[in-house]
Amino acid sequence: MKTPKVGFVSLGCPKALVDSERILTQLKTEGYQVASDYEGADLVVVNTCGFIESAVQESLDAIGEAMSENGRVIVTGCLGKDEAKIRQMHPNVLKVTGAAAYSDVMDAVHQYVPAPAKHNPFIDLVPEQGVRLTPKHYAYLKISEGCNHRCTFCIIPSMRGDLVSRPVGSVLDEAAALKRAGVKEVLVISQDTSAYGVDTKYKLDFWNGQPVKTKFYDMCEALGQLGIWVRLHYVYPYPHVDAVIDLMAQGKILPYLDIPFQHASPRILKLMKRPAHSENTLERLKLWREKCPELVIRSTFVVGFPGETEADFQMLLDWLKEAKLDRVGCFT
User: Fold this and answer.
1) Tell me, what DSSP letter sits at residue 166?
2) Is the CB of residue 219 less than 8 Å from the CB of residue 196?
3) Where do the structural domains in the chain lie, given as residue ranges?
4) Architecture of domain 138-331
5) Strand 144-145 to strand 138-142: parallel, antiparallel, or no bridges (unpaired)?
6) What is the largest CA-CA distance in the chain?
7) Hey, which of 55, 66, 204, 294 has its CA 20 to 30 A from 117?
8) pLDDT, tens digit, for every residue of 236-260?
9) SS3 328
């Protein structure tokens, strides 16, 4: 009996990439092979993105290509939340699931392509760190799923739900396994990294026999003990982030923050329902740089937001001149 093969298409952000890695790891663990093309696959899994319209179209096109080339397709990921839209264009897909629906995807795979009955996991060993789609020197470390904010321009909470933080012991175990596998840098990701643990009320956990709180600072401090580069993404400029800057100044984690400021006008930020709309971000940036002069900051901004005036836009430009960010991306 031939070994069943599953094709895989992964689209979207690093958080979706981690979802793909987890599904692929489970497939390999159960004895499936990953096909390198459509023709050799018994079915194809397409992990979609639905964040912006161009991503939606890319996902629909990818589903269409998989249907045309193979015909047996399971759809997962953020766009999967809108099954009606998918089936309107591709009514014959085998199954549609939402984001991070690992068990649902595997159940569908089992239904249409049963796992090898006599698979011996010791013959085709899955590495301790699982299947990774990144180069060997770095890996994404997803610490939570979902988001508690309801920013008016963002569809993510409707696709990925409210904040659900991973136990800090699990996060640190994964990071340690990545280090043992030769990974030199972990990129910490989530929808709101600085809110890590809020949903658990900072529950106490254990790692290496020591108590550690499920909390942003405590997690960063523990990661800093591993002796690898730790880079933080998707951090909101909350006051409690100040303490993490101290870890950067001490060389325990990389002096880098990816912060989606989105705008500088208090009026626009309030219309966006941004959680930090009342914060004096310029003062916070000044404080951080005083603590850690080597700090590098990347951010993204939304321009042309409904109701934005020339005065609001000019306020953003003036803010950028004073903020002196290192890298900036822009959406419209």
Assistant:
1) P
2) yes
3) 5-112, 138-331
4) Alpha-Beta Horseshoe (3.80)
5) unpaired
6) 69
7) 66
8) 888 899 999 999 999 999 999 999 9
9) strand
Evaluate if residue 232 carries a pLDDT over 90. yes
DSSP for residue 79: G
Check if 5-112 and 138-331 are the same fold. no
Distance from the Cα of residue 240 to its chain's centroid: 22
Any idea how long the chain is? 332
For residues 113 and 328, what is the distance between their CA atoms, to the nearest angstrom?
45
Closest CA to 263 of 249, 281, 245, 243: 281
pTM of the full predicted structure?
0.79
Q: What share of the chain has pLDDT > 70, as a percent? A: 94
Q: Is residue 19 pLDDT above 80, yes or no?
A: yes
Q: Where are the beta strands (DSSP E) in the chain?
A: 5-10, 33-34, 43-48, 73-77, 95-96, 138-142, 144-145, 164-165, 185-189, 204-207, 210-213, 229-232, 256-258, 296-302, 327-331
Query: What is the C-alpha separation between 99 and 144, in angstroms, rounded?
Result: 13
How many C-beta atoms surround the C-beta of residue 223 within 10 A? 24
d(CA 268, CA 275): 12
pLDDT in tens, 104-137: 999 999 999 998 776 555 545 555 566 777 788 9
Pick the CATH number of 5-112 from 3.40.50.12160, 3.90.1150.10, 2.40.160.180, 3.40.80.10: 3.40.50.12160
